[in-house]
Amino acid sequence: MAFDYGKFVSGGLGKQLATTLGLPRPTTLRRHTAGAKLINGAVLVGGHGDTPVADRVKTLLADAGVQVATQASTSVAGVVVDMTSVESPADLETLRAIVAPALKTLAPTGRIIVIGRPVEDAATVAQAAARRALEGIVRSIGKEMRGGGTANTVLVAEGADDAVDATVRFLLSGRSAYVSGQVVTVGKPVGSVEAPTDWDKPLAGKVAVVTGAARGIGASIADVLARDGATVVCVDIPAAGGPLAEVANRIGGSALQVDVTAEDAGAKIAEHARARHGGFDIVVHNAGITRDKLLANMDADRWASVLDVNLSSILAMNETLIPAINDGGHVVNVASIAGIAGNRGQTNYGASKAGVIGMTSALAEEVRAKGVTVNAVAPGFIETEMTDKVPFATREAGRLMNSLNQGGKPVDVAETIGWFSWDANRGVTGNTVRVCGQMLLGA
Amino acid sequence: MASPQPDQTRRAAILGGNRIPFARQFGPYAQASNQDMLTAAIEGLVARYNLGGQRLGEVVAGAVIKHSRDFNLTRESVLGSSLDPHTPAYDIQQACGTGLEAAILVSNKIKLGQAESGIAGGVDTSSDAPITVSEKLRTKLLKVNRAKGAGAQLKALGAIRPTDLGIETPANSEPRTGLSMGEHMAQTAKRWGITREAQDELAVASHRGLARSYDEGFQDDLVTSFKGLARDQNLRPDSSMEKLAKLKPAFGKGDDATMTAGNSTPLTDGASVVLLGSEEYAAEHGLTVQAYFVDGETAAVDYVHGEEGLLMAPAYAVPRLLARNGLTLQDFDYYEIHEAFAATVLSTLKAWEDEDFCKDKLGLDAPLGSIDRDKLNVNGSSLAAGHPFAATGGRIVAALAKMLHEKGPGSRGLISICAAGGQGVVAILEGA
Where are the transmembrane segments (chain B) (predicted)? Predict the structure, then answer.
């Protein structure tokens, strides 16, 4: 068993040592479980001037049985500040005045959500400056927060307010445990925004395809989508058939052994989903590999295999999958922090994952007419069998180089993918959201 | 003799199959029991065909080498699987014919309307073998067990002599002749003049065919990896006549012995299962009918008195099956003749070409004739895959059904499997 710093400093001698030396001590994050409350405490809701989104949030909280607070106190677990009406930097004082006292008393694993409007839609230069300033404030708050709390910005386009609920719910809940310092853009919905009958089963009746589902993050994605009500087609290479069957049977899904780089992979997946489940609503392109080498030593095989599996295969499969996906469906791609920040020894991997991010925004526009959303998740340091094999110092550095002082779990990535797949979330498309605990790399 | 009309029954469809890769004895599955392997094969099938929580008509399977504790092997495997625990199961055993016989039984119930769906399969381990004690020791130990009181038990124990001690493991030999299967086969090979070269050629073709089928992805929806093994361990894609020629004979005596470890199947561990159902069941569950299980036949020969070779029973079963279905030996797109030994396949084919054999032994006016060898064991057979006895039938049925489905409706395949005790199980499948 590899040494785990987080466990070491959580009690006994390790705890004493860390406290004496002033070393970071990671908090156990609040993670969603079936039937869990949206948030454990009241939510303080405020804003500047007209607050159309804050008013929606109050209704949403009432629906979810969460108390709305009017001032900071120890019973407050979250703060939502509607800054959609800011005109100039002077208006930012409102944000300081609401959040500063709240930070002193906020319960552990608290949530700060700041709502703004997209910078590019600003009417004046001063408004653009003020809107962009929100991002700087929130990212800094994220770094100041303690106790496993997160801070995120939500930019809601004019006229898209009714599409914001899914994102606010996601960010308040334990589903976003490892998402911090992020900017989510809610735009004009691609189709009707449909609240689920039961917010605990937001994917009820849906059919999802998950590639690379045999282990690690892929298996977790399958688990989460199934927990939230979806029937999952679990796809992986034939050599992973045993563990793939285990995942499929655990969640009552079906297993399909196919190499995503095979020419007929898309057709096989579409046909399987059609014949067995009457079609599909969600595709998660998760399958990926690494073949690390410094570029100076990188051969063509390593280069090509990573690009083939991680990027080209998705483009090829989408030729078949996009026409076949049910209208109003959701495509989610798994990118990586390496596609944003780059990584030594990973030119091939970085290329593929940055490519995924580019593909995501372009495809989102292309399939808007079909009512399909396309988003990407970019995981940071996620604890898997793969990271267990990383040398101690590198691993601990990876774990600690973020605002939450710990690595994320596969389920954190899976939860974000689940949120992208909700029919209530049709306003979020073309986004790449990092699940990295606000990692310092590429921030 | 009046047979029931075919229109009184319905068709039994083969909907798919699954097996774990076959491993060599004491290989990656050395610690796996029959129950572990059969459960794994069922779990792969359940995942592939989305059978989780479903109550199937029945599951029928068996093992040739079996621990006495495994009296309910198949039912226990079902209980350990993701199938609805209300799915009944039973064990059968007909030596190497077990898997195919299980498929005949399940398909018959479906044809008669007694079941809508079912799984047929088989499993065998040559690694996790049961051990028995000598017959004398066993009798005396039973006496100890029966004895009342410590004194009586000690007395009974005292009756055990050092010469009683002995451990027996299952042997691949015939109880009535004491000869191993290989020695029996060597006699038959000699009788039919099967050359070493012809046997080695068949072995090479088997390895190449199976290797190609893996490379082409044909096995992708037939096999599910187990304990880190993703392909049959015995498979040698680079097998060649030159390499096989170097091997020393393993069976038979003298300079003209032809059978080697290369053209005989090794001891292996593995499991396979096949999903069968009515056409209505298939439609309801969104499953594609790959082939129909048309008919099956079994035969047995008297090898004990030397009248016929031990593994020649399929040579008798096939003509009876052909006659009943109004077919000739040439009316098939694929032939799957189980490669217990390369010589088994070649002796069987030669017998069907032989006028005297067909006349005297089969009572036919003319020989069955020869077959197009390009249609034989196209994707390899037991020489390459290995042969965990009861698992071979399921492997062949699932693979042939897929081949026939790819060939198209109305295509036909013939299966022939020899079995210990001088038995043979054969069947006809038709593509859908």
Answer: none
Do A239 and B221 make contact, defined as CB atoms within 8 angstroms? no
**Among the partner residues A242, A246, A254, nearest to B48 by beta-carbon distance:** A254
Residues A265 and A235 in one domain: yes
- How far CA B275 is from CA of A347, B20, B59, B191, in Å, comes to 46, 15, 9, 40
Residues A322, A416: one domain? yes
A277 CB within 8 Å of a chain B CB: yes
Residue B153 has what pLDDT? 87
Q: What is the mean pLDDT of chain A?
A: 94
Question: Searching chain B, which residue's CA lies closest to the CA of residue A279?
Answer: B286
Question: In this predicted structure, what is the pLDDT of residue B7?
Answer: 54
Q: Is residue A19 part of a domain?
A: no
Residue B140 is predicted with a pLDDT of 86
- What is the distance between the alpha carbons of residues A230 and A400, in angstroms, rounded to a whole number? 34
Q: Give per-residue pLDDT as tens, B314-325.
A: 999 999 999 999
* Structural contact between residues B298 and B423, judged by C-beta atoms closer than 8 angstroms: yes
Tell me, what CATH number does A377's domain have? 3.40.50.720
A249 touches chain B (CB under 8 A): yes
Domain positions in chain B are 181-217+294-431
Q: Are residues A244 and A387 in the same domain?
A: yes
**Same structural domain for residues A86 and A217?**
no
| pLDDT computed for residue B6 by the predictor | 52
CA–CA gap between residue A347 and residue A307 (Å, rounded): 10
Specify if A100 maps to a domain. yes
Distance (Å) from the alpha carbon of A40 to chain B's nearest alpha carbon: 36
Contact: B49, A254; criterion CB under 8 Å: yes
ipTM over 0.90: no
Residue A55: count of CB within 10 angstroms of its CB: 14
**Separation in Å, CA of A232 to nearest CA in chain B:** 10
Q: Is residue A198 in a domain?
A: no
pLDDT band, very low/low/confident/very high, at A1 (cuts 50, 70, 90): very low
Cα A173–chain centre separation: 12
pLDDT mean over A324-335:
97
A296 and A218, same structural domain? yes
Cα separation, B178 vs B171, in Å, equals: 10
Average pLDDT (A318-339) is 97
For residue range A140-167, what is the model confidence (pLDDT) as tens digits? 999 999 899 999 999 999 999 999 999 9
Say which of A241, A249, A257 has its CB closest to residue B82: A249
| The total number of structural domains that make up chain A | 2
- Do A369 and A228 fall into the same domain? yes
What is d(CA B25, CA B32) in angstroms, rounded to the nearest whole number?
11
A349 is catalytic: yes
Query: Both A289 and A425 in a single domain?
Result: yes
Q: What percent of chain A has pLDDT over 70?
A: 98
Which of B50, B232, B275, B289 would best serve as a mutation to test chain A binding (most A beta carbons within 10 A)?
Answer: B50
What's the Cα-to-Cα distance from A315 to each of A212, A333, A409, A442, rounded to whole Å? Answer: 16, 11, 28, 26
Distance to chain A for B13, nearest Cα, Å: 17
Are B187 and B346 spatial neighbours (Cβ–Cβ below 8 Å)?
no
**Tokens 């070493």 belong to residue:** B196
Distance from CA of B73 to the nearest CA of A (A): 21
Closest Cβ opposite residue A252 in set B49, B53, B225: B53
Q: pLDDT grade, residue A309 (50/70/90)?
A: very high
Instruction: Verify whether the Cβ–Cβ distance A234 to B47 is below 8 Å.
Output: yes
B121 vs A7: which has the higher pLDDT: B121
Instruction: Indicate whether A211 and A146 sit together in one domain.
Output: no
Spell out, as residue ranges, where chain B has pLDDT lower than 70: 1-7, 167, 169-171
The percent of residues in chain A predicted with pLDDT above 90, rounded, is 87
Inter-chain residue contact A244 with B227, CB threshold 8 Å: no
What is the third-level CATH fold of B181-217+294-431? Peroxisomal Thiolase; Chain A, domain 1 (3.40.47)
Residues of chain B whose beta carbon is less than 8 angstroms from a beta carbon of chain A are 20, 40, 43-44, 46-50, 52-53, 82, 217, 219-221, 223-227, 230, 285-288
Domain containing A281: what range? 207-435
With H, G, I as helix, E, B as strand and everything else as coil, classify residue B51: coil
Asked if residue A34 belongs to a domain, the reply is no
Considering only CB atoms, A245 lies closest to which of B217, B220, B224, namely: B224
